# Entry
Amino acid sequence: MNHCCDRMTDALKFTCKKCKDPFECPDSILHYTETRAYGLIVHDGGRSFLAIKHCPWCGKKLKKNKTREITRGDRVTGKLGMKEYSVRATKKIEQPIPGDPHHIHRVELALVFDFSTHTTFWLPVEDLEIKDED
Ligand SMILES: [Zn+2]
Ligand SMILES: [Zn+2]
# Structure
């Protein structure tokens, strides 16, 4: 998983030897949610965090279209943002890396419908961006 920058990645990789839960650790500051959003941990004894739209380290805008998983019905664009597709299904497959049969790489694929050619085919989810309504 690639986060905004090295400093953000380091903050998310940080694990404390004393605390089991990052929400309990005063040294833990950033939370990455299951819906791929970022938040600053509020150390109030609970599990609250403050959602952020910019990286606290480098100030870059955090990508909005990566804040949730691609699901059926989404309008998406390809890697270069040229073509628009509609997602029909998604699946995760295990792909062996050539020359290293024990190293299994998990890839998520989306079955997309191409409006211009009226065909469906599988594309890696990591190459797709959700087209936002606004
Ligand atoms: Zn700690
Ligand atoms: Zn950053």
Observations:
- The beta strands are 30-32, 38-41, 49-51, 75-77, 84-97, 100-114, 119-124, 129-130.
- Residues 16, 18-19, 25, 27 surround zinc ion (ligand 1) (CB under 6 Å).
- Helices lie at 6-13.
- The two ends are 26 Å apart (CA to CA).
